[in-house]
Design a protein that fits this description.
CATH architecture: 3-Layer(aba) Sandwich
Radius of gyration: 17 Å
Mean pLDDT: 89
CATH superfamily: P-loop containing nucleotide triphosphate hydrolases
Bound molecules: guanosine-5'-triphosphate, magnesium ion
CATH topology: Rossmann fold
Strand content: 15-25%
Number of helices: 5
Helix content: 25-40%
Number of strands: 7
Distance between the termini: 29 Å
Low-confidence stretches: none
CATH class: Alpha Beta
Number of domains: 1
Largest sheet: 7 strands, mixed
Structural class: alpha/beta
């Protein structure tokens, strides 16, 4: 009998794989890959640590713009790619262009990239950079979910209001916006459920492609 499908994802032993600072260093993971994107200092590394249940898997800092590489992590059923943060005012134009090119190249050759989580601070409206990021994802047809960070900074009431407001500003339904807190672990379950679904869909698509290939060969 077929085993009942789990409705949530279990993350047991998340480990760091490698960093890539150049296009020729990008990995081509066999597993479904989930990219984490967001402004510098929004809480990407903290979010990754929360999901992994490890304090220091991804380096966090008070000094924004630290992560300038694509950092890959093995999360068991999927690979997580931590993308360099954008929108940091204090970096030079050349540096910004470099990041833009790196991100562009990353999405263009998307391989097994099946979903992106775009992190946005729950206290603020999405910036122009955030919106551009989402246009990028639309352009490369990469489905995404908006993950609001630092939910512990707002009251329950205010948070609910912000979820509606931010979803509206991005023309998204509220079901595509998940509020989280790396401090308290709030929202982690909801993200795990979303990822469970995303990974199941990616794996099913892969089976379909394999079946089609077999039919062609017959
Ligand atoms: N209160 C609160 N603070 C948070 C949360 N998540 C992150 N922070 C803080 O926000 C700051 C930035 O967090 P990081 O996780 O390093 O952010 P990042 O997006 O990885 O930053 P870069 O890699 O520099 O782009 C740190 O001081 C964190 O402690 C959260 O859920 N709640
Ligand atoms: Mg970081």
């Amino acid at each position: 009998m077929e085993q009942a499908k789990q409705d949530t994802l279990m993350i047991k032993n998340a480990t760091f794989i490698t960093s890539a600072g150049r296009v020729d260093q990008f990995l081509k993971p066999q597993k479904p890959t989930v990219a984490i994107c967001g402004k510098s200092n929004v809480g990407k590394s903290s979010f990754i640590n929360m999901m992994a249940n490890r304090k220091q898997l991804a380096k966090t800092s008070r000094d924004p713009g630290r992560t300038r590489l694509v950092n890959y992590f093995d999360f068991g059923e999927f690979v997580l790619a931590d993308l360099p943060g954008y929108g940091f005012a204090r970096v030079s134009k050349t540096e910004k262009d470099k990041w833009g090119k790196l991100l562009d190249a990353y999405f263009k050759d998307k391989g097994n990239l099946t979903h992106a989580l775009v992190l946005v601070d729950c206290r603020h409206s999405p910036t122009e950079d955030d919106k551009q990021m989402m246009q990028f994802l639309h352009y490369y047809t990469i489905p995404f979910t908006v993950v609001l960070t630092k939910a512990d900074k707002l009251s329950k009431m205010k948070l609910k209001e912000q979820i509606r407001k931010i979803a509206g500003e991005l023309y998204l339904g509220v079901e595509n916006v998940i509020a989280t807190s790396a401090e308290s672990g709030y929202g982690k379950e909801e993200v795990l459920k979303k990822l469970r679904h995303v990974i199941d869909v990616a794996n099913e698509e892969e089976y379909v492609e394999e079946d089609e290939l077999e039919e062609e060969q017959e």
